[in-house]
Design a protein that fits this description.
The chain is an alpha+beta fold and about 900 residues long. Strand 26 and strand 27 form a beta hairpin. The structure holds flavin-adenine dinucleotide.
């Protein structure tokens, strides 16, 4: 090629380098630059490096001097049906994914409206609503893994191809998706796909206009089960039409149609034969759905229960709509000049631009040393500033108080504390976001470590200080919960417990999407910060998937608003709603969070008994494979679990191995789901037990470890593995108990989503002897075994920070470490955790060191005699009246608090 043609602005040596990287035939001169056709990720990386060196931009679309296009090799599509996933190169046409998935009985969740004109890379770069968004979210919600070439040519992977990215440090999946190319070039994507069933279209004509349609829409969005793929209102030719597509098993689609008929009939709607015809309007706005009737739109896509994307061919209509409805202009190119600033406050938009800039070219050289000269010494002057920030009554330096706050639930001997400076200088108890921000400002200025803390139930030392400093106790006074049933949201301060939040929602007929089984004590901010999995995750995702907006307090005390309290954050720049999850207190403190909540209907637990636990595998796999049944929760407990409860004198059902499947929603739907599940279970030998047993197990879902009553250490080894390996991994757990000579407690666990399953085999441990610590070797052993299946241990905290290097490739880990410096240049946010486990002696808990220690523990444990802690303790344990009362006291009815 001749670079001098067509006014090419690139230097000849840049063109030559491009030719060397991809071959002369793949470099074409265009007006002002070149188009480079790439055939591999390596070539994209080479092009990015050349562009960086030449100080010019390279991108897939846009008017950049180097335009990257994908050859046929970069258009490959592979459906991995057993993972409910489609792996596609970025250049693939999205329609090719839809077709390939359909051929295997699957459907892509969110789809671009003009799928044949959009590539995978373009769709993944957008955070714009599409077909299926009401049911499955946007492109970002489909991501399992993205391969991305950053602007400096570094290649990273954001997640995993066959398992969810829970508890795996900073959440890169949903920050790259939707970043509109601002961060780098997506070269490949692994996306979730769902069992398809059938899809049917329905149309209704509504007497009147938007105002009349509004009542019907409000009724539809309040239905606990209706989740259309298309949910579109059109006002044209004097008619107001509502178009809905339902997808799933035939019987469920029929039920959706019948429910919709009834709702529309009650609201002046008449079924119509009209067929939806795509209309392309030039101008769009995102508005809160509550204000839809005030809009001036020709068309409205109902995007979720909170948001409408309205469009018109007149910009004046859109401007009037935005003014009347409190919305914002929806456009791609949020990063173009000034657009982000129009839809976010000054602090948030600046942060967004800085973050995009950093992620595109992660280089922290200029800020890494900015904290070097800080005193990092807590003293009276700092105490005074903290008193100014939160009031004297909320600053506590007393010895016993500081001792209480020097650890979390981990049953470690006192000696373990010697490795860390884990006794804080001071404990503060803020009650507002502004107070937390004020504390952070003081800490930032002087370089004092701040450990955010909820109720310290995690057990990985996340809330244990590593370098003294300030413990920020969020749970004591920062725990207000406000439910708004009209908007279907709950606004909650991050120190509130999940139970308080759930109770408040249930009292008004709603549930929160998901919560940890430790919900009586676990706090909102902490579970967000661990990006954990729990009850309800199978149906509603994890905590992050239900966030509408949150205040995020940064290390320097600045406060961001990640979204909007009354509508989704579509088309508004980077997706900050989900960015900070998984950061384990090292990137921010969560302030007040606004969550979506869900109309409850009924909750109906069922239980099936199996001779052997592994026999439940075909039932679990068939439930996952069904296009319509969607349990709120799937959990299991094996026979050891029940036997030990009985031995401990607790009530336990007479069953072998129990699979608990809980449904939630409108009663007629729940009945249908139960019928399908009964049929599946019967086919594979699962015996349905009395509902009273199922209800008992559901009620006890937060007391899994109740055999602890005999006064013994009861520790779960928590790992996740791909869902498809469930049956095999049950056997692995039993084998592992034997190999490691454990005192078996039982095997319990939950299904997290179609790709992910969480196993928590637990064991009894001697808490009195130092040698009891060796039992922890089982956790390392099981983590190693999980890796063989494509899984991993979860969470890092202080003790497992070294695992980060095993959980991601080197480039991605390096990016995460630099991200920590970018977000916290003075290293004051929970230092010594997650990305840099560090003892007070400056010894890093590196992967090499910790894996050597863990291997050694395993070897010694295998040489020790088998343990019988449970039986021994039963013989010598006295169950006193006080403990009896404590057990009685925890009997409660959800929604009504303790009674
Ligand atoms: C019996 C039992 C059952 C459990 N079940 C589950 C389960 O089903 N799923 C699951 O994921 N986990 C589970 N856990 C682990 C633990 O309960 C959860 O991680 C829970 O979210 C911790 O809440 P906490 O308030 O006790 O947090 P803490 O232990 O106090 O803190 C945990 C982490 O969060 C950070 N943090 C706390 N508050 C904030 C804030 N406001 N902003 C930023 N960071 C913050 C801390 O620095 C720390 O790193 C269980 C634990 C037990 C003992």
């Amino acid at each position: 090629m001749d670079c001098n043609k067509k006014n090419c602005e690139l230097a000849p040596e840049t063109c030559e380098a491009l030719v060397a990287a991809v071959g002369a035939a793949n470099v074409k001169a265009t007006e002002g630059g070149v188009t480079v056709t790439v055939s591999s990720t390596e070539q994209v990386a080479a092009v990015a490096k050349i562009a960086k060196k030449a100080k010019v931009a390279a991108a897939v679309c846009g008017n950049t001097p180097i335009t990257v296009t994908f050859s046929e090799a970069m258009q490959k599509v592979e459906v991995v049906a057993e993972d409910y996933a489609v792996k596609a190169k970025a250049g693939a046409n999205f329609q090719a994914l839809i077709d390939a998935a359909a051929a295997k009985g699957l459907i892509m969740g969110a789809q671009p409206y003009h799928a044949s004109r959009v590539t995978v890379g373009e769709w993944m770069g957008s955070n714009t609503p599409g077909y299926g968004t009401y049911k499955y979210g946007t492109a970002k919600d489909a991501v399992l893994n993205l391969e991305v070439v950053l602007k400096d040519g570094t290649v990273i992977e954001t997640g995993y191809d066959d398992i969810g990215a829970y508890m795996s440090a900073y959440n890169l999946n949903q920050i790259i998706a939707g970043s509109e190319g601002a961060i780098g070039i997506i070269t490949s994507a692994t996306l979730k796909a769902y069992p398809a069933g059938v899809t049917k279209s329905f149309a209704y004509e509504i007497a009147g206009g938007l105002a009349e349609a509004d009542a019907a829409i409000q009724a539809l969005i309040r239905h606990p089960n209706l989740k259309p793929m298309r949910f579109t209102l059109q006002v044209a030719d004097g008619k107001t039409m509502l178009f809905l597509d339902y997808q799933g098993a035939q019987a469920f689609v029929d039920a959706d149609a019948a429910e919709t008929d009834a709702i529309l009939e009650a609201n002046g709607g008449k079924k119509s034969d009209a067929v939806y015809k795509p209309a392309c309007y030039k101008f769009k706005a995102v508005i809160p759905i509550a204000n839809l009737s005030k809009s001036n739109a020709k068309m409205a896509m109902i995007v979720d229960r909170y948001t409408a994307l309205v469009s018109s061919d007149s910009m004046d209509d859109i401007k009037a709509t935005i003014e009347a409805c409190g919305g914002r202009k929806a456009c791609g190119w949020a990063f173009a000049d000034g657009n982000i600033e129009k839809v976010h406050d000054e602090t948030t938009s600046k942060f967004m631009r800085d973050l995009a800039g950093f992620l595109a070219e992660p280089n922290v050289d200029s800020i890494a040393k900015s904290g070097d000269k800080l005193s990092r010494e807590y003293n009276d002057a700092i105490r005074e500033k903290l008193v100014e920030a939160v009031g004297a009554a909320n600053v506590n330096e007393s010895g016993p108080e500081r001792l209480l706050y020097c650890h979390d639930l981990a049953p470690l001997p006192k000696m373990a504390g010697i490795a860390f400076d884990n006794i804080p200088d001071v404990v503060v108890r803020p009650s507002t976001t502004a107070q937390i921000a004020a504390v952070m400002k003081v800490a930032y200025k002087h370089g004092i470590a701040v450990t955010p803390r909820g109720n310290s139930t995690w057990g990985l030392g996340g809330a244990q200080p590593a370098f003294r400093g300030i413990v920020c106790d969020c749970s004591s006074k920062f725990n207000k919960v406000t439910v708004d049933e009209k908007t279907m949201t709950v606004k909650v301060q991050s120190g509130a417990t999940w139970k308080a939040t759930l109770d408040a929602c249930m009292a008004k007929g709603f549930i929160v999407g998901s919560y940890p089984s430790s919900f009586p004590a676990a706090t909102i901010g902490a579970w967000l910060s661990t990006n954990g999995m729990g009850i309800g995750s199978f149906k509603y995702g994890s905590a992050k998937d239900n966030v509408l907006d949150m205040e995020v307090i940064l290390s320097n005390g600045e406060v961001l608003h990640t979204g909007y309290g009354d509508m989704g954050n579509y088309n508004s720049g980077l997706n900050l709603n989900q960015f900070f999850v998984g950061s384990e207190g090292t990137a921010c403190i969560f302030g007040t969070v606004t969550f979506r909540i869900h109309p409850m209907g009924v909750i109906h637990p069922l239980a099936y008994d199996f001779e052997n636990l592994a026999d439940a595998n075909p039932v679990i796999q068939a439930i996952i494979a069904d296009p319509s049944i969607r349990p709120l929760h799937i959990a299991w407990s094996d026979h050891y679990h029940f036997e030990h409860q009985k031995m401990a004198g607790l009530h336990a059902p007479d069953v072998h191995n129990l699979l608990l499947v809980t449904y939630q929603g409108q009663e007629n739907y729940v009945d249908m789901e139960i019928a399908v599940t009964d049929e599946i279970a019967a086919k594979f030998g699962g015996k349905r037990v009395d509902d009273a047993i199922a209800s008992h197990e559901w009620d006890e879902r937060c007391y899994e470890f109740r055999a602890r009553k005999v006064g013994i250490g009861e520790i779960p080894a928590e790992v996740i593995v791909p869902a498809k390996t469930w049956g095999k991994f049950v056997d692995e757990c039993y084998t592992g108990f034997g190999v490691m000579k454990m005192d078996i407690g039982g095997i319990i666990g939950v299904m997290v989503d179609n790709q992910t399953t969480l196993f928590m085999p637990y064991y009894f441990k001697d808490d009195e002897m130092m040698t009891g610590m060796l039992a922890f070797a089982f956790n390392m052993y099981l983590g190693d075994r999980a890796e063989v299946y494509g899984g991993r241990s979860t969470g890092y905290g202080i003790f497992f920070a070294g695992n980060l290097d095993a959980a991601h490739d080197a480039n991605t880990v390096a990016l995460m470490r630099e991200l920590k410096t970018f977000l916290d240049p003075h290293d004051v946010m929970n230092p010594g955790h997650l990305v840099c486990g560090m003892t007070k002696f400056g010894i890093g808990m590196s992967h090499g060191l910790s894996s050597f220690m863990f291997k050694m523990m395993q070897t010694i444990k295998k040489l020790m005699p088998p343990e019988h802690n449970f039986e021994n303790n039963i013989k010598r344990f006295k169950f006193n009246k006080y403990t009896e009362e404590k057990c009685e006291d925890r009997k409660h009815v959800l929604g009504r608090g303790y009674e």
